[in-house]
Amino acid sequence: MNPSRLFLAVAALALALMFTIAVSTSATAAATAPKPTPTPGPVDTKKLISAVNATASTVTIQYQSNKKTFVYKVDDFTTIRVNDSHAKLADIKVGMVVSESSERDAQTLDSIAVTDGGGAPASSAPTAAKPAPAKPTPTPAKK
Questions:
Q1: Distance, CA of 78 to CA of 14 (rounded, Å)
Q2: Backbone angles phi and psi of 78, in degrees to 5
Q3: Does domain 47-117 have CATH number 2.115.10?
Q4: Is residue 59 a contact partner of residue 74, using CB atoms and an 8 Å limit?
Q5: What does the pLDDT look like over 104-123, one tens digit per residue?
Q6: Which of the 8 DSSP states describes residue 50?
Q7: pLDDT of 24-75, one tens digit each?
Q8: With CB atoms counted within 10 Å of each terminal CB, which end of the chain scores lower, N or C?
């Protein structure tokens, strides 16, 4: 075989081998490259009071994002705040928003703070004074 043809055959074989390795390596790199972690959306942490049982001294809290409910015991050591004021279990009503809570253990609340709605204590929301209604001015009677 002619040496130049032999050289061309070896060169063509080497190029084909390098191309195969390059394609194989890039496919492997793409398959093993770490995928970007998706950015989580906003977490709905809004919790509502869904039940209050004064007889059993329990309160049921429901997460609005997944509708899961949790029943907790409330005892004499549980700190209760309603609209940023000290309160009793009887002051907690269904539909109130739980602004914060902490568990003493899996079944008992150490503290709970609730508001009438919106998550902000009612005492911190400024209230505008309503103006007094205007009184009509009397018109003199015609003679």
A1: 79
A2: -80, 130
A3: no
A4: yes
A5: 998 999 999 999 875 444 43
A6: E
A7: 766 565 556 666 766 665 555 789 999 999 999 999 999 988 889 999 999 9
A8: C
